[in-house]
Amino acid sequence: MLNKIKNNPVMAFFTSFRLMYQFSLGVVVPFWSIILLNAGWETLEITYFFAISAFVVFLFGGIVGKFADYIGKKKMILTGLIIQACFFTLYFFFVQNSTVILIARVFEIFAFMLIGMVGLSALEDYLEDSERGFWTGMFLGIGAIGMMVGPVIAGYIAEVHLPKILLILSAVITVLSMLVLYKIPIKHNKLKHKFSYSDLNPLNEVKRFLQFRKLRGMALLGILMNSKAQIYAIFFPIFVIETLGLPIYYVGYLYSIPVFFHLFQAIFGKYFDKFSTEAGVLIGVSLSSLAMFMFPYINNLWSLIIMLCVYGIGSSIWNVTAWSLMGSIAKKYEMEAEVNGTYMSIAKLGVFVTTLFLSLIHISEPTRRT
Q1: Residues 246-294 pLDDT 10s
Q2: Angle subtended at Cα 325 by Cα 61 and Cα 287, rounded to the nearest 5 degrees
Q3: How far is Cα 21 from Cα 109, in angstroms, rounded to an integer?
Q4: Contact partners, residue 266, CB within 8 Å, separation at least 6
């Protein structure tokens, strides 16, 4: 597999960029709840922090994808990196001011869309259907190394220093990833029709997306999968520290377990390219759902590890097969960035509703701080 990357310079740069970008997220994302609790936030405010991210993606996901096809994907990704570096630095200085941070969150999530969704669609432009699963899996799998190593390193740093120092570390890595992006010869496939103000209406993109039967199914599954991931992101760090009574660096260790299985996405992708991408989607959803059903019965470290392994295998298979399936449809109709963006927009609507529901559950509960 490494030889295939070595013999394909474009893919080498794509995967290197993904590795650095995911590392920049890996040192922060698993620790968001801890960073905010440490800064004096209430649990309700933290759920708002996550809800805003879902709502921003819902509003602008499809629009961002279409504008990437208009303006050029490389310009959009670079803009996202600049925004992310600036606002992670802003978080560091104003993390105790929830109003400032919630406003800044809007811009930071906008940057996430520019980098993550547009970056994946830029890769899909280069792929043929016969190897789409393999290269999508390679891209996502190598990126998972960053998301796996980042939390382990960050856990030790957060144990010794204030957790918010992780924000500065992430900003520095984001700046360095710009150097790798510069080397990638990203294609610019312009849309065939001219810009119109109707392109600013997110509902237009949703309607077009839902015209395709397979994409309608992916929209429903995406809502389900992303809602589960949101619950995991908010409560997993708090559960590890407060319920199991483990040190903060255990959050990094345990968060890396499901990410470890994402290293094998190229293998899963190659297998389901030959077998059935649709079957891979269903298997991934089933396994990750099984893991979530196990969660209420977790009462010790080893049962948590087993649950995380099942969740990791399921989410890994889902991730590569879902993006491969949508990528093949999008390329057929020359709307790669638009499909990726609109899918995330629809999926995050479910996340937004889930997060608001969680905030209602916890609105009257007293918050314990670490």
Answers
A1: 888 888 888 889 888 988 888 888 888 888 888 899 999 999 989 888 8
A2: 95
A3: 14
A4: 1, 134, 135, 137, 138, 141, 320
